[in-house]
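Q: I have 156 residues here and want to know how they pack in 3D. Can you give me a structure?
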Amino acid sequence: MQHSFNQGPSICVQIECKDSILSKVTLTKSSYFACCISKECDLDTEQTIIKWLAQYSYRKDPSPLSFNLPKLPLFYQKVLIHLQNLPFAQLVTYGNLASTIGHPKAARAVGSACKSNPFPLFIPCHRVVAAHNIGGFAYDLSIKQALLQFEMDLIL
């Protein structure tokens, strides 16, 4: 089912569920903020996602969703759990995040953990930037730019 929002970044959030549990999120470019939810999501999951995205579209900091993270290395899990609590419009560098979780020389590994994020936007890896530029992104870099521009009113 597709839902659109009156405001928000120009992306489509594609939601997949397995056994009524959120299993994967994919971001694509769009002319407006929308989401497509697979038929495998139950009504409660769908309503939770729509509510979260609606709050986000109004630049409110939605409460973190609970996820079953797939089997990932422990370091990746630490990165993603920390990111899940990163406030709306707050940026962190790869290096600072590595230091925060106790691995000060692991900035590249933080980037790898972000790239493996199965729930982008809900776990905001787009808020992790390089020390002197925007850094990379698992999707088209214009999606990261759209998210940051929306959250921070930045012109990138």
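Q: Anything worth noting?
A: The domain at 74-152 is CATH 1.10.10.10 (Arc Repressor Mutant, subunit A). The two ends are 32 Å apart (CA to CA).
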